[in-house]
Design brief:
By secondary structure, this protein is α+β, with helices and mostly antiparallel strands. 30% of the residues lie in helices and 33% in strands. Strand 2 and strand 3 form a beta hairpin.
């Protein structure tokens, strides 16, 4: 387990042993767990977004994954 991002808006944990990424959008209190190809795609897109380091793009970036964030984040 590796915490990738813990910002005021987003919490991302990478689970390489099971090829999964957990994403929590703190603004809406929801998250989801992505596995396999979805996790790989998310990692690649997060890396590209981090290179630009433009916080204004956060909504657009995370918005693409909004449909996957169906679990209420009550323990994070």
């Amino acid at each position: 387990m590796r915490v990738v991002c813990n910002s005021p808006e987003l919490y991302v944990v990478d689970y390489p042993a099971i090829d999964a990424v957990e994403v929590i959008d703190k603004r809406i209190g929801r998250g989801g767990l992505m596995r396999d190809e979805a996790a790989q795609r998310f990692r690649a897109e997060l890396e590209l977004w981090a290179e630009s380091a433009d916080p204004d793009d956060m909504d657009e970036f995370i918005g693409h994954y909004g449909a996957l964030m169906t679990q209420q984040a009550i323990y994070h």
